[in-house]
Amino acid sequence: MATKANTMPVISKLYCSSSQVVLVVRMRPHVVNGGGFVVTNCSQLVVFRVDGCGVLGTKGELVLRDGNGDALLLIRQKGGIVEALSIHKKWKGYTFDYEGSKKLVFTLKEPRSCLPMNNAIRISTEPKRSRGKEWDYEIKGYFPDRDCSIDDSVGNVVAQIGIKKEVEEVMASKDLYHVVVKPGIDQAFVFGVIAVLDYIHGDSTRC
């Protein structure tokens, strides 16, 4: 008898599947749609959309939307003097309740370094999941190559980002890639993290 996957919602359990899910990310051109990207499932239905600076008109701000266009997550780069002196840049992810109030659900720390491959980007969630560590997830690999994963605090891969060989052979760009999300993992949270990675590395969500 198969073991049921533990559900680990960050945004909502609605975005946690009992089985592994493969989703496809396609970047939108800045000149046509203001950048950002769309996420589709195996039926080619849009399940998420990310709007960045080109759509919102605000630097350091991202919005993750569901397939209907409703906002699920507001992500902002934290600023100020204290942040400027910190060894990390911080990004905060907020959900909205039915009254429109914001609730912090995750913080992503981006190292201030010219060698990002040697410095892990780490994410902590609210409420905190990991015991004995200051973070719950980290990025392994290098996002610009579309060859990386989101791992939990004990090293389990929860989401894998990659490019299928047949796509890589016909496309020189990295504008189309796939994300494998493990059972029980919040897909909305995964794509919120990917939205920040996209912005950090100057891709579709950045002006």
From TrEMBL:
Pfam families: LOR (PF04525). Belongs to the LOR family. This is Protein LURP-one-related 6.
